[in-house]
Design a protein that fits this description.
By secondary structure, the protein is mostly helical. Helices cover 77% and strands 2% of the residues. It has a two-stranded antiparallel ribbon. It is globular and about 55 Å long.
Length: 256
């Protein structure tokens, strides 16, 4: 169950980045009044996605020759964290996808390490806490709370409702067709409600790019819809995930 969740989340994030890039490029071209063909939209996206994948792999391979006190570099949080910052900086400089580059970077490190590197993960999480907190503060600063007391609130709730239905049908159906174990098929919809990092990061990116082309109202609306849904999902999602893991037998029933 847990392995299925991790795979789905990683694969979902990659597809999300691709679809997001297509949708955002289309929105920018429509607003600017320039009609672009599918090829004209696809070529820059292929370059961006391909370049992001190559950058993530190269940076991860670059760490392989380094060792710190007998520990391989990709097992040291103090070395991985600055490397992530370098990945972010280069992605921005080269106009590539920051999120996709970092995902590929982490994936390549995991393959090279051939182990879970739990200590490294914990170390990176501790170092990342203040940066993540600052990111959420900046997102909240850009939100327009006035939309929450307007008819737009109906749109926000409808989005959450439809997303929940999509997650449920889209996970249970294929799992049933693929004849996966019952403990996975019956519980996987409960485990996928959470929404946070990638969604909020892409919403912030959309906000920045749409504001740059003069689509202020659309930018604020997108950020508010996603941010409020992340808030709701992060309240309900972890509770449902714990319940799913209990029902699948991967954590004890007496855990509170």
């Amino acid at each position: 169950m847990s392995q299925t969740i991790l795979f789905l989340i990683a694969f979902d994030d990659i597809l999300t980045i691709i679809f997001f890039s297509v949708a955002l490029s289309f929105a920018e071209s429509v607003y600017s009044g320039v009609t672009l063909s599918l090829i004209e939209i696809s070529i820059p996206l292929i370059i961006e996605i391909g370049g992001s994948v190559i950058l993530g792999i190269i940076l991860a391979l670059f760490m392989k020759p380094f060792h710190i006190e007998g520990v391989e570099a990709y097992q040291s949080a103090e070395f991985v964290f600055p490397s992530v910052l370098i990945c972010i900086a280069l992605s921005g400089l080269l106009h590539l996808s920051v999120i996709l580059s970092c995902i590929v970077f982490g994936l390549t490190l995991t393959i090279m390490a051939r182990c879970e590197n739990k200590e490294c993960v914990r170390g990176v999480e501790q170092l990342a806490v203040p940066i993540i907190a600052l990111f959420f503060i900046l997102v909240g600063y850009e939100m327009d709370l006035g939309l929450l007391v307007s008819p737009i609130l109906v749109v926000i709730l409808l989005y959450f409702f439809l997303r929940t239905i999509g997650k449920t049908v889209g996970s249970y159906g294929p799992a049933y067709i693929a004849k996966m174990p019952a403990k996975v098929t019956n519980n996987i919809p409960l485990a996928l409600l959470s929404q946070a990092g990638v969604a909020l990061g892409l919403a912030a990116l959309a906000f920045t790019r749409l504001m740059a082309v003069g689509m202020e109202e659309v930018a604020i609306l997108i950020l508010d819809i996603v941010a409020v849904n992340v808030l709701i999902a992060e309240i309900l999602g972890p509770l449902l995930l714990k319940q799913a893991l209990k029902r699948s037998g991967e954590i004890p029933q007496n855990i509170t």
